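Sat 14:20. Reprocessing the chain from the morning session after the first attempt stalled halfway. Input below, unchanged.
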Amino acid sequence: MNSKPILFITDGNFLSHLLRCIEIARVLRSMGEKVVFAASGRYIKLLHSQGFTIHPVFTNDPDHTMKATRASMMKYYDQMLIVRSIFSEVECLRTVNPKVVVGDFRWTLKISAEYCGIPFVSIINTLWTPYYGLRRSIPEQLHIRKFIGKKMCELLGPWLKEKVLVKRGKPFMKMRNQLGISPLKNLNHEMCGDLNLMPDIPELFPTLNLPEHFKYIGPLYAGDTSLPVPDNPHVPDKPFIYITLGSTATPRLISLLFKAFESLDIPIVMTTGKQPVTHPVPNNFILMDYLSARQAYKNAQLVVCHGGHGTLYQALSYGKPIIGIATHNDQQWNLDRIQAEGLGLQFNEKTCTPETLKNAYINMVSGQSFANNAIRFKTILEHYDAPSIAANEIIRFAHNPLMQYATV
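Finished this time. Tokens:
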């Protein structure tokens, strides 16, 4: 066996990206592979609890990242941030000297890996690849929408998207020129690796002309042993509404949820991901940091969330319909598909009201169509074991040089 480790580099400020790396890394470790992490941020204690070796790496300020996310313009990096990120990644790659590096939400890592001559595996949602087969809706938060209107934005959508990707890719292109490595078309291609693992299913996120080095692996989200869940949580043994906030909920969203469901004669179980809750908690709400999926979904009538990728798939894996309230464009696009497939209802944080959410709940539980559709997708998802599929793909890739350095 190659003694070099497999290195994961991700953003430790966001649960979803960190946890799906942990899930794959745990399988790799169980297969005898040496696994190392490079991450910084508020959730890296989870890596310590799993016993992984951790190298610090420069990571964007999470407030800056969320501001860029909610502006829907992909302005995560300027030239200075790119330089700092690549300098830190290259230093780490040279120190660890891995046989392969796996990245999740590290858009500078493709450059760093190419510069160091290390094969790069990208964990990337299908929506972010150049091969997503459906048209994305216009983000609710897009500033230009206020000036030219939704219809004009929809007409110009593909052109606007290409312009944004090229503009945001320019600082990356400048860096490539300075380092003497090959140019790429736009920012979209910087997100992709030599091997790309898509934690999706084609029934929900289809593609067109998908190359061989892009692989569907199925839904990838935290297992019960990856989080510090309570052994004996106070969870009702009767039907309840399950609300999960992930790690990116806004104070406005939390207030909206409290007001929407406080008058219902049903328990509400809410997991916060250790985010601060400053609003008074209604009497029918039970709050906890984390909860095992088994406990969360056993008696849940449905799931209320912000439309995060892993949360949606986890809910569907238990056959639960969804009420989604998007706070940014990625969640909006995820929920577009949930609503289109009859798996739930979609709302936007800035435009929906407590009464709207309350009525959505009443309508969903009064019929069977959403529940039946969710159960249908549960059957599809049972055929996937994403962490194991991903781990095997990474090992095969790491030991097969003919697979390496494919072009997007």
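The chain has 15 helices and 13 strands.
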